Amino acid sequence: MSDYSIKIAVAGVGNLTSALVQAIYYYTEGHSEELIHPKLGGFSISDIQLVAAFDIDQSKVGKDLSDAIFSAPNNKQKVINIPKLNVMVNKGPTLDGISEYTEEVIKVASEVDANIVEILKQSKAEFLVINTPSGSNQAVETYAQAALDAGVGVINSTPTKLVRNPEWVKKFVAAGLPLLGDDLQSQAGGTIFHKGVLEVLHEQGIKIEDTYQLDVSGGLEGLTTLDYSRRQNKRKVKEDTIKRSIPYDINVAAGTTDYLDFLGSRRIGHYWIKGSGFLGQEVKIDITMITDDGSNGAASLVDAIRAAKIALARGKSGPIINVCAHLFKGPPSYISRTDAINRFSEFITGERDS
Ligand SMILES: NC(=O)c1ccc[n+]([C@@H]2O[C@H](COP(=O)([O-])OP(=O)(O)OC[C@H]3O[C@@H](n4cnc5c(N)ncnc54)[C@H](O)[C@@H]3O)[C@@H](O)[C@H]2O)c1
What we know:
The protein is of the alpha/beta class. Helix content is 35%, strand content 20%. The longest helix is centred in the last third of the chain and has 21 residues, at 293-313.
């Protein structure tokens, strides 16, 4: 193990965690030429070390993490064999981790709830990555409080408000711990792609009127977001950030519309943009994008984990504004896509403070 190891615990062993674990081994083997940041502040993806895990599903609890990531209902494709990790998946508190639509699929393990704080302390985790389902607000807050009690930073992949909630921000600042979130922005994600296309059209003088980005997916998260209130919450995060990419009001709809199990971990996004250009000419764009959900999210998550470690090493606490703005859809404050990329790089090199 290198001196650069980054010890993380995960809450939620779904498709995103499966892709994260697989990425660590895939990039330990090589493949660094495929990466935009083979190293980030001196850290490689292979420096990330999983030291503890929590889930609620009987198909995962009690198993070694290397087995649990390939257990149904996870359907992220296996890209690499994972050795036994000697990290057992502990039973977390169920709370609101199951939605009306996933109760047939997630069977809650019979084990008693583990002591999250104690496990985090014993594992020497530096960060808890929260990968529980969309809308599991009580679960996210319970894990965030446990992380605080254990003296561990938090990376919130979910849409639950932590960096956008002043109370949580205050607690993490007071504890001297970094907090990154909310709602991971995937590498070739619907939101970043949508914002990019709208920005280019705007810069070219096209007046945008209406746009939508509607997707279908076959992962468990797709099933979770069939639940109206969970879906609306996630849609709001997406729609807010897309609206902000253009300096005038436009009609925006964005979010998951259906779950199709035969798609596996794929997400198929349909983009529609209508606007007008020179001489009032109509401009219409219709695009389909097919991606793998878990991989797409893990690509950003490995950068968030390495940036969190850099923040910790520099004694930073609370939200790291420019890291959140680049890697998450719901950052504490909005920064344009291109500014966020540049400021993120400047934070990594140390030219910027946060
Ligand atoms: N591309 C991406 O993967 C991506 C992008 C942006 C945001 N996110 C967010 O990341 C989160 C995870 O996504 P996913 O695709 O892995 O979801 P998933 O549904 O595949 O996995 C969620 C896991 O959490 C477990 N769980 C449920 N309640 C729990 C609890 N109380 N404690 C511990 N575990 C619990 C489930 O059993 C399941 O294993 C979601 O909130 C999603 O919105 C993912």
